[in-house]
Amino acid sequence: MITDIFTSLIYPSIAGTCLAVLLLLIRPLTGRVFGHAWHYYIWLAVLFTMLLPVRFSLPGTADAVPPVSPVVQSEQAVQTEQHTDTAASERQPETTLLQAGTGFIKNIIDNRLNIIAYAWLAGAIILLLINFIGYIRLTGEIRKNAAVMLCPEIAGFTKRKVSVRVWANKSSPFMTGIIKPTLVLPARELTEEQLNNILRHEMTHFRRHDVLYKWFVVFVKCVHWFNPMIWIAARRIEEECEISCDMAVTLSMSREEEMSYINTLLSLLPKGKTKQIPLTTQMASSKKMLKRRFIMIKTKKTTSRLVSALSAVTALVMLSTTVFASGVLSELSTDDYTVEITKNGERIELTNKPFIENGEVYVPLREMFEKLGETDNIQSNIEWDNGKINMTVIYSNYEGYSVSQQEQISAGELAYRLTMEAGIPEMTLTLDKSMENQGETLYSRYDNSPIVRDSLTYVPYSWRSNLFMGTQHIDYRIYGKDGNVIDYSGYDSTLIGDYSIKKPYYWSRDKVKSYFEGDDQYFVHKATYDKYGEGSGILFGIEKVAANDADELLNTLAGSRLLGINGEYAYIFVIPTDVQYPIWADRDEEDIEIAEEYKRLFGDVELIADSFVMVQTD
Question: Is residue 80 over pLDDT 50?
């Protein structure tokens, strides 16, 4: 999961870097046209781009899902033969040095990506903690060392409550705090003119929410600490923040007032080296920076409404273009599908995502066993032994006796390659009914092999019958980007008259019953029907009507749709318009289970309707 989060940040980081480089390159041009406020806030486009891992589908790229072999969708035929040590030795030459080397390299890449991802997470957490702890220390020092000061003049700049304090240890005024803003003044005699200039400057920062902006910069910098451009951007934002604030303060000043403002800045200049206080709006800065600010104040110019409108449009276009480019790149780098694994129709939440490889769905071995409860017995275990998985599963009560299932899956060093030849497509299966007398050892061979990805072993879905012996109906569904089901397994094709439908395996006779009313067929949830009688538990129906009457029926029945037309007859898919399962407040525990099962079954109704196929009959 950490690897996924890290990789999802790569393309937004690249897109943000490209925009930042563009801003730096065109700065001489934009500096002549747009104001300093524009150059300050345009950096928000860079920050938002880096934090928006959005995706956009390009035409023709949707649902580009790797094909799943039809063999996988039904139970794969496997060859079973007596296993001997000789047979095992004969199979070894199937693995080549080239496969081993390629697999080894692939595993190194996967492992290094994991290491890089966790290094990124550690760096981000450390930087966030450093900034947060530094801020906590600063607020603590302010409360301890800075004395509260009455400053009625501040009411002329804001109606919000702003705490004013005097700190002897600081030579430059600054503001800090988002929820509880605090203005810190140096412990020195200030003239009325100087105090007025300081309040003008700091309250401009306050009204613009510059402290919040600085927190946002720090957060993005911590997340993208590996990107040198975010550090450059942070420094440029700091500079533009002070210059744009100076421009806003001196916008309507006379030349005399400007000189007074500049003199105030000079009076606050510390004698030694200036130390920037993070996450604050420190008024004084370095001598070099102050010189630049003075030049900007003296050469400032007003911006027309037309230029202001043009600057806003330019900023919007730049942000939209960059975010779109980032989204397209992110989309191209991600899977076009999602594989969902179900047990008896109920979704299994997997942290490690299943995927499609070699025309087969692959599932995470260890996590599947844990989620299915196959390793609940204390004697059950899965061990990695020199490239092989040694797995022992104990079923406490399986058809009346204990069963020891021990598989040796050759996922070895060759399974690191994501090709059919990468692994050894076979397993050794030993059944021991009594746990004391070893039963027959069988050797099974398959079309696909286990795969190692991100240091985890994934096994082909087609191995499920021999792997998960204690569980019924392990199925998959593949969803496209639009959320629609593209493919699914675990169904029976049922021929009904001149059409066929695919029903999920778990729609067994003990769960679903069907009946005919003339040529119309209806499917009913058995538990609801048995408890509450006729007219309850209906899941869906397929009604056969005259083709000429189809449109009228479709307009009458809510949720109905046309499935197909065969000559003079049409087939209409209908679902109940009222609730068919117990929903009342005082329902019992059995009713709750019945309702959950009904809803799970009803969730597959649309899939069954989509599977409708007309069949030609003689």
Answer: no
Residue 475 and residue 363: Cα distance in Å, rounded? 11
DSSP string, 144-211: HHPEE---GGGGGT-SS--EEEEETT-SS-EEE-SSS-EEEEESS---HHHHHHHHHHHHHHHHTTHH
In the β-sheet with 613-614, what is the strand arrangement from edge to edge?
Answer: 491-496, 499-504, 613-614
What does the alpha-carbon distance between residue 608 and residue 611 come to, in Å, rounded to a whole number?
5
| CA dihedral for 164, 170, 176, 177, sign (positive or negative) | negative
Given a cut of 60, whether residue 485 has pLDDT beyond it is yes
Collapsing DSSP to helix, strand or coil, 417 comes out as: coil
- Spatial distance between the Cα atoms of 181 and 211, rounded to a whole number of angstroms: 9
When pLDDT is cut at 50, 70 and 90, the band that residue 99 belongs to is very low
Question: What are the pLDDT digits (tens) for 405-420?
Answer: 444 443 322 222 222 2
Spatial separation of the C-alpha atoms in residues 208 and 244, rounded to whole Å: 11
Q: What kind and span of H or E run contains 517?
A: strand 512-517
DSSP state of 40: H
Instruction: List the alpha helices (DSSP H) in 208-279.
Output: 210-223, 228-250, 255-267
- Residue 546 CA to residue 393 CA, distance in Å, equals 57
Is the per-residue pLDDT at 258 higher than 50? yes
Residue type, 359: G
Q: Using only the alpha carbons of the chain, give its radius of gyration.
A: 35
Q: Nearest-5° angle of CA 211, CA 213, CA 218?
A: 95
Please give the order of strands across the beta sheet that includes 485-488: 346-347, 337-343, 474-480, 485-488
Tokens of 548: 């000429």
Q: What is the mean pLDDT of the chain?
A: 76
Q: Which two tokens stand for residue 303?
A: 């911006």
Provide the 10 A C-beta neighbour count for residue 614. Answer: 14
Contact status, residue 410 vs residue 382, Cβ threshold 8 Å: no
**Which residues have a Cβ under 8 Å from the Cβ of 349 and sit 6 or more positions away?**
371
Kindly tell me the sign of the dihedral angle through the C-alpha atoms of 120, 121, 125, 126: negative
As a whole number of Å, the end-to-end CA separation of the chain is 56
pLDDT per residue over 103-131, tens digit each? 444 444 455 677 888 899 999 999 999 99
Q: What is the pLDDT of residue 278?
A: 82
Going by C-alpha positions, the residue among 53, 69, 38, 49 that lies closest to residue 6 is: 53
Which pair of structure tokens corresponds to residue 10?
Answer: 């790569």
**Is residue 460's pLDDT more than 60?**
yes
Look at the alpha carbons of 585, 590, 595, 600 in this order and tell me if their dihedral is positive or negative: positive
What is the C-alpha separation between 185 and 201, in angstroms, rounded?
12
Least confident of 221-225, 334-338, 563-567: 334-338
Per-residue pLDDT, 62 = 44
